Amino acid sequence: MEAEEVRLMKGNEAIAHAAIRYGVDGYFGYPITPQSEVLETLAELKPWETTGMVVLQAESEVAAINMVYGGAATGKAVMTSSSSPGVSLKQEGISYIAASELPALIVNVMRGGPGLGTIQPSQADYFQAVKGGGHGDYHLIVLAPATVQEMTDFVALGFDLAFKYRNPAMILADGVVGQMMEKVVLPPQRPRRTEEELRAQCPWAACGKGDRKNRNVITSLELDSARMEENNHRFQATYKLIEQNEVRYQTYYADDADYLIVAFGSVARICLKAIEEAREAGIKVGMLRPITLWPFPKTQIAELAKSVRGILTVELNAGQMVEDVRLAAPTTPVYHFGRMGGIVPNPGEVLQALKEHFPELA
Amino acid sequence: MTTEEIIQPQNKVYSRPRLLDERDTHYCPGCSHGVVHKIIAELLDEMGLENKTVGVAPVGCAVFAYNYIDVDWVEAAHGRAPAVATAASRLNPQNLVFTYQGDGDLAAIGTAETIHAANRGENIAMIFINNGIYGMTGGQMAPTTLLGMKTATTPYGRTAELNGYPLPISNILATLDGTCYVTRQAVHTPAAVRKTKAAIKKAFENALAKRGTSVVEVVSTCNSGWKLSPAKSNEWMVEHMFEKYPLGDLKTPSEEPKN
Amino acid sequence: MKEEIVIAGFGGQGVLSMGKILAYAGLMDGKEVTWMPSYGPEQRGGTANVTVIVSDNAISSPVLDTFDTAVVLNQQSLDKFESKVKPGGTLIYDPSGIHRLPSRTDIRVIPVDAITASIELKNSKTYNMVLLGALLKCRPIVGIDAVIRGLRKTLPERHHHLIPLNEEALRKGMSLVD
After folding, report:
1. In-domain check, residue A183
2. Does A22 fall in a domain?
């Protein structure tokens, strides 16, 4: 079994390595830029010969997510990855997985849309990821990695949370963090769960009755509306629990900040450089980076909003997370700076946007 | 001899299969689904597979199959049963994994999943109920609806110009290297029921022996959708459906495992 | 120490792999590194560029608007990145195919004829290693030994016999810079 190891690799490659080392049982994917390295790396590493992990290139994103559904239904730790157009195709399956209360991990390495769009980085799937995406009232646990290390670590975190709450988790990355290489510490190899461990951890799994007296059925169908409403109440109770327990975020220079930037993923790193430059010029800017986009760190933003003059969200979209920031800080001026279509702003542009929205800084 | 004297265990010639739940089904009287369910329940018991089977239910009339046969089940999205079964089978190779699908599920919305699962030679059995109509949604055209057949969405009869031709998907599946066994059966007579049971048994055996994908098409009736009595439906099926969908083996397995 | 570098040229010139080798060398020396490529179909013939940052401390943005050093290998890249070199920074360019020369006087401008050098080395694939040698002479971000250790770690065994040639190319590149 491989021990902890320092490596230089792309975010997409890190996802593949992390999946093997976590002891993931199955990966089902379909090629799409800019995330194809996940499947390619897994194919090259051949984990079926070492850990026994199943890796399969499906005929479509639709098939891939339904393979995830099928694998998760049997209690296995299964995942898929794709990029924006492919993740749109997966939405029906994701809704079924959420409604069937199954753990699974979905990775979206976002690219610019709408439509076929571009292969360059984007964050325009924020609404899709945090507000549901597919049909029905459900939530994914959404993790936004900013570094290759977080791409690695969030595989384990995503699965741990998914199994803890029996709810699918998503790593919402983008082309920057998927394609860039940086130093990463790979975790030690964990063994895959044995059948006995799986049956103990997932007494609900439809993996053959075994010693069980009653059959397990994984379904999201309930034609009795009263019972379907009960199911929904149960889902909502889970979401409430997740909101109470699992909010994750990081703050930077926030203690004495007069202005607050809210940004997630790779964009937060660009903003951090802009903040460092602003601080050198005597402008007290800080940042809150949501790590969980759902549950959203709304109380933390509300708290910081009390002591700043204004908030700027920086996103690779037309203004999506800014809506959640405004809900969290209704009495604070909240502005949005975004680039779209695959354009990634540089630190200078972020600083410029800050000065435009807060003219006293110019 | 009194009735009480006749009702004795030693005189019993037929009983509900042990794995078929004691509850009324939601199927219409005369529907073929009930017979095929019974066959599957009998086989899973006879073959000792109760504790190592995962069924994958479709969307369609058989959506509630999991309410009747006492093994573990996963209810798939419409058409996706072969993808669901692919993962369930690959991740649990010790299990028997089978899908139970209708013509709309397997041959319309799920065509891609059906063909690719079969082409990969997934070690699963696909039980395919072909009654040429969408029963659950109220009798609309299916991919297997015959030309001239009236349905809710072909009220003047299916025409090739407007709707294309009935799709003989099993014939297509028989051409793929991944399938080991493709057969077309029916359940309209006791003899046909016995042959279908033998076919499904062979399909289950193939899946367990890792010989590749098996497809058992059961040409079936839908007396509600066809708007005929159960008896007339059987006659109509023999007269019309069997012409387009003739019974018999389309491909038979070799004894060697494929992978 | 923190060095922010852009390497830009045609796809196929070894732009991305030169950046990768530099980043690996940084890793070998215990530095923090980021390698951020332009990606997509331009890898197959259009223009490609990569931003490499090597630093003693944690790196914030992998995306930059200005650079300490630019290595540009065609006219488009020169036109695009000359203005983005920080005052006092370094611009290394390959003069072949360049018809409009760099004009800035507040930066160090260094032509490196890596094509001729790689022809002399009898292996056109040494092109980017010559440039890397020149870059490391101008900006000693990492030692040559770190580059070699990086190559040894990243190259498959069957290519290890090429390491001496690569070292020769690095030294040749260094010799091209005063």
Report:
1. yes
2. yes
pTM over 0.90: yes
Query: What would the pLDDT profile of B17-37 be if each residue is shown by its tens digit?
Result: 999 999 999 999 999 999 999
Tokens 């209810």 found at: B75
Q: What is the CATH number of the domain that holds A157?
A: 3.40.50.970
Give the CA count within 13 Å in the CB-facing half-sphere of B197. 18
CB atoms B87 and A71 under 8 Å: yes
Of B108, B169, B101, B111, which Cα lies nearest the Cα of B140? B108
Distances (CA, A) of A104 to A18, A42, A152, B135: 15, 18, 16, 33
Structure tokens at B90: 């690959």
**Residue-range definition of the domain harbouring residue A313:** 249-361
3-state secondary structure of B109: helix
Residue A212 lies in a domain: no
Same structural domain, A66 and A164:
yes
Pick among A44, A182, A350 to test the C interface (most C CBs inside 10 A): A182
Q: Indicate which CATH number applies to the domain containing B136.
A: 3.40.50.970
pLDDT digits (tens, 9 = 90+) for B140-164: 999 999 999 999 999 999 999 999 9
Note whether residue A272 is domain-resident. yes
C32 closest CA partner among C56, C50, C15: C56
On whether residue B13 sits in a domain, the answer given is no
Question: In this structure, are residues A259 and A354 in contact, taking their beta carbons and an 8 Å threshold?
Answer: yes
Render pLDDT for A292-316 as a digit per residue (tens, 0 to 9): 999 999 999 999 999 999 999 999 9
Which chains pack against C, by 3+ Cβ pairs within 8 A? Answer: A
Q: Which of residues 218-247 of B touch A (CB under 8 A)?
A: none
The answer to whether residues A174 and A69 belong to one domain is yes
User: What's the CA gap between A42 and B75, in Å, rounded?
Assistant: 29
Count the Cβ atoms, other than its own, within 10 Å of residue A136: 12
Fold entry, domain C2-112+140-159: Pyruvate-ferredoxin Oxidoreductase; domain 3 (3.40.920)
CATH at residue A344: 3.40.50.920
CA distances (Å), origin A6, targets A182, B85, B120, C27, C151: 10, 38, 38, 9, 16
Q: Give the N- to C-terminal CA distance of chain C in Å, as an integer.
A: 23
The complex's ipTM works out to 0.94
Q: Cα B101 to chain center, whole Å?
A: 6
Mean pLDDT over B90-119 rounds to 98
Interacting residues of B56 by C-beta distance below 8 A, sequence separation 6+:
A70, B73, B74, B75, B76, B81, B84, B85, B88, B97, B98, B99, B100
Q: Answer whether A63 sits within 8 Å of B80, measured CB to CB.
A: yes
